[in-house]
Amino acid sequence: MEGLTLSDAEQKYYSDLFSYCDIESTKKVVVNGRVLELFRAAQLPNDVVLQIMELCGATRLGYFGRSQFYIALKLVAVAQSGFPLRVESINTVKDLPLPRFVASKNEQESRHAASFSSDSENQGSYSGVIPPPPGRGQVKKGPGSHDAVQPRASADQQEPASPVVSPQQSPPTSPHTWRKHNRHPSGGNSERPLAGPGPFWSPFGDTQSGSSAGDAVWSGHSPPPPQENWVSFADTPPTSTLLTMHPASVQDQTTVRTVASATTANEIRRQSSSYDDPWKITDEQRQYYVNQFKTIQPDLNGLIPGSAAKEFFTKSKLPILELSHIWELSDFDKDGALTLDEFCAAFHLVVARKNGYDLPEKLPESLMPKLIDLEDSADVGDQPGEVGYSGSPAEAPPSKSPSMPSLNQTWPELNQSSEQWETFSERSSSSQTLTQFDSNIAPADPDTAIVHPVPIRMTPSKIHMQEMELRRGSSDHTNPTSPLLMKTSDLSEENKINSSVKFPSGNTVDGYSSSDSFPSDPEQIGSNVTRQRSHSGTSPDNTAPPPPPPRPQPSHSRSSSLDMNRTFAVTTGQQQAGVVAHPPAVPPRPQPSQAPGPSVHRPVDADGLITHTSTSPQQIPEQPNFADFSQFEVFAASNVTEEQDSEAEKHPEVLPTEKASDPTTSLRIAQADGKIEEKTAASVPANVSKGTTPLAPPPKPVRRRLKSEDELRPDVDEHTQKTGVLAAVLASQPSIPRSVGKDKKAIQASIRRNKETNTVLARLNSELQQQLKDVLEERISLEVQLEQLRPFSHL
Amino acid sequence: MDRVCVCVLPMSSLRPNYPLYIRSTPTENELKFHYMVHTSLDVVDEKISAMGKALVDQRELYLGLLYPTEDYKVYGYVTNSKVKFVMVVDSSNTALRDNEIRSMFRKLHNSYTDVMCNPFYNPGDRIQSRAFDNMVTSMMIQVC
C-alpha cells in the first residue's frame, strides 16, 4: 500500500467503509458479503473489481486488511473516475472523488459522521505511518506492478500493523511493546523483517540460556524483557508478521521481494495464519517451553505432576488465583498432571498474563493439546476468524474471547460432549441403581421347579390312577401346591414322599394331624389301586432290563418294587433288613420300639388308622406283597415314578408290615393336601404303629417312606375309583409273588428308588420354597400397605 | 421464580461444615438459604451415620430428599471423603425428578474433583474456580 495518501475526507470515508465491512471487528476484512456488496455497489464491471482486488493485494492475502481495503477503495474511485487501474494511479491521480457506492452505501455515509471522531485519530496516525512505507513501495515500483504489489503486499502487512497500532495510544501495557516494535520496523525496509527478529530473538536466546538454570527464567532480571519479547512475539502478529513467523517465513519474506509470487503466496498464507492467531506459540517459544519441560520431566512423553508444575509456575509470581485459572485452562484432560502440550499451553498463558493480557475464558485453539485429528482443524481454523492482533492491545484482550474463531466452539462442544459422556455415565450408573431392586424378585420360578413333565406310565390302570389323582389334587386347594398338583400330580406324591422321608426327622405329629380327614375307604381304594397298579406295572417291568435311564418312570420303580417285593416275599425279615440296608439315604428311623411313640398321634387318625388296620390285616393274610404292591400302586397313581421306585424299595420293607402299608395308603387317602408332610409323617408312624406286628426295626424307616408315599398318593386319588381298583388289585394278588433270586436287581432297584426319592425330595423342596416365596410376597405386600397407611397415622 | 441454592461443605477438622462454596440463584433471601443448608447438615450427618461403615457404594452417595419444608426441598449428597453437597430447590419446581437431581449432584461431584485436581487449589479454600462457577450457573439456569 505504499504511496496511498488519503485526504482527510477519503480517510474518513475509507475508515467508515472499513468499519462497515469489518463486521467481526477483526480489523481484517475477509472477503465477506459486505465487501462484495460494496464493490458491486460501486457499479464496476466484475473484471475491474477483480483487478482491483488483485492490485490491492487482497487476493494474495486472502482477506482485506485495512490497507488493502483502502487501496481497493481508492482503486474503485480511480476506476469510477475512468482512470486506468494501475498501482500508480492510486497516488498519482489527485483529486479523486470519493468512490461511489450506490444503494446500500448511504448507511455508510451516516456512519461516516458517527465515526468521524474516531477517524481523526486514525488519520493522524495513518498519515504518520504511511509515509515510510510509501517510500519503500515507491522504490519497489520500478520492477513492475507485480513486484510492486509484492512489496506492497508485504508492506501492506506491515502497515496494517502500524496503523492499527498507532491509534492505540493508551492500551494497557502492550502499547509499550507495540511501540517498541514500531521503532524496530521503522528501520529500513529490508531491515525490518530481519532487524526485528534479531533483537527479539537475541533476548529470547538469552532467556533460553538463562532458562536452563530453571529458576532463572522467573527470577532473573533478564526474564521480564525477554518475556515481553516473547509476548510481543506471540502477541504482535502484525508487526511481527515478519518477525513472529517461523524463521522460514522470514526468509520467505526476503525471497518475496526477489522471487515469484508462488513463494509470496506461501509467505502470505503463513503470515496470515500467524497473523490471525494471537495465541499461537512460535517455534522459538515452543522450543523454550520444551526445554523447560525437560528440566522438570526429561521424558517428553511423560507428565509433569501437579505439585512440580505448581512450584514451577509459582515462580512466575502470578497470583495463585490466576495460576489456578491457567491450570484449569491448560489441564485439558483434568488429570492433575501436564503433558508437554498442556505444559506449553500453560507456560504460554503465563507469559501472556505476565505481559498484561487477560486470560481467556476458554483455552485458545492454538493452545489446545495436540490431539491427532484436531491439529489440522486448528490450523485451518486459525485463518478465517482469528482476531487480527493488529487490533490494539486494548482491544486484543477483550476481543480474544469474543472474537475467538468459531472453531473454539468446537472445543466447548467437545467439553460439553465430555459432559454428556459424563452424564451418560451418570445415567448409566443411575440406571444401574434403578435396576438394583430387580435382584430382589424371586428368581427361582417355583413353577419351573415343580412344573415339569413327569413321565407317567401310560398303562390303563395308571391312567386311571392319574385321573383319580388329578381329581384328588383338584380337591386339595388348601395346599398352595395344589395348582401345581393339577399340573403334575406328582407333586402330591413328591410331597408325600418327602414328607415320608422327613418322617424320620420327627414330623410324626404333623403327619398324624393331617391324616384325619380321610375315611378308610379311600385308603382301601387307594391301596387297591396301588395294588392294581403295581400289578400292571410289575408285569411289564419284570421283563424290562434293570434300570431304565429316566428315573421317574414308574415302570422301574414298579419293577424294582416288585423285585423288592419278591425278595421280601422270599425272605420276609432278612431281606427286608437287607433291603433296608440298601437305601443308604434312608436315615435311621426310630426303632420299632419307638414306632409306638407316634402312636400317640394315632388317636388323631385313630379312626382312619383303625380302619386301615382293619383293612391291612385283611390284606396281609392275602399276601404281604400285595400290600406292598398296593402301596406301589398308590405311588404310581401319584405320577411319580420315582416315588414309585422309592415306594418299591419301601414296599418290600413294608411287606412284613402290610398292615402298615394299608394304613399308609389309607392315611394317604385320608390326608389333606395341605399338610403332606404331616400326613406322611402321621401316616407313616401310624402305619408303623399299626404294622408293628411284623416288621423289624430296620425296615421301618423305609416302610415309613413307602407309607408316606402311599399316603401322598391316596390324597390325590379319588376314593371311589380307588375302591374299584383295590378290588381289582386284590383279585390280582396271586400274580404278585416272583422269583426270589434277584438280589442284584433289588439292589439296583433300591438304588433307583433312592435316587427317585432324592428327586422327589428336591421337588418337594422347590415346592416348599415356592410356598415360602409366596408367603414372603404376601408379607411384603402387607408391609407396603401398612406403610401406606402409616404416614397418615403420623399426621 | 424458582430458587435454587447449591452448597459444598467439606468435613474439615478446622472448620467443620464450613461451606466451601455456596451460591443461590436469586440473590435475595440468600441468608435464608444459608440457614436452611446449615439446618440440613444435621440430617446429612444422621444419614451418614445410619448408612454404616462399609457402605461406599455410589448409590449411597446420593442421600436423596433430606427433608421437605414448607416451600423447599433439600437434597443431600456426600462423597467418600465426607464432602457434602446440599441442594435446595423450590418445592414448586415439580418438574425436577430424582434422577435429575442425581445427575446434578454427579456433575457437582465431577466439577469438584476437577477443582481438587488443580494443584493450586488448597483444600479448605473457598472454591473460586471459574469452571466450577460456570457449571453451577448452567445447572441453576437449567433448574429454574
UniProtKB/TrEMBL annotation, chain B:
Gene3D superfamilies cross-referenced by the UniProt entry: 3.30.450.70
GO cellular component labels: endoplasmic reticulum; Golgi apparatus; perinuclear region of cytoplasm
Keywords, sorted A to Z: Cytoplasm, Endoplasmic reticulum, ER-Golgi transport, Golgi apparatus, Transport
One GO term of the biological process aspect: endoplasmic reticulum to Golgi vesicle-mediated transport
Compartments it resides in: Cytoplasm, Perinuclear region; Endoplasmic reticulum; Golgi apparatus
SUPFAM superfamilies listed in its UniProt record: SNARE-like (SSF64356)
InterPro entries from the UniProt entry: Longin-like_dom_sf, Sedlin, TRAPPC2L
Subunit structure, interactors included: Component of the multisubunit TRAPP (transport protein particle) complex, which includes at least TRAPPC2, TRAPPC2L, TRAPPC3, TRAPPC3L, TRAPPC4, TRAPPC5, TRAPPC8, TRAPPC9, TRAPPC10, TRAPPC11 and TRAPPC12. Interacts with the heterodimer TRAPPC3-TRAPPC6A.
Known role: May play a role in vesicular transport from endoplasmic reticulum to Golgi.
Name by which UniProt lists this protein: Trafficking protein particle complex subunit 2-like protein
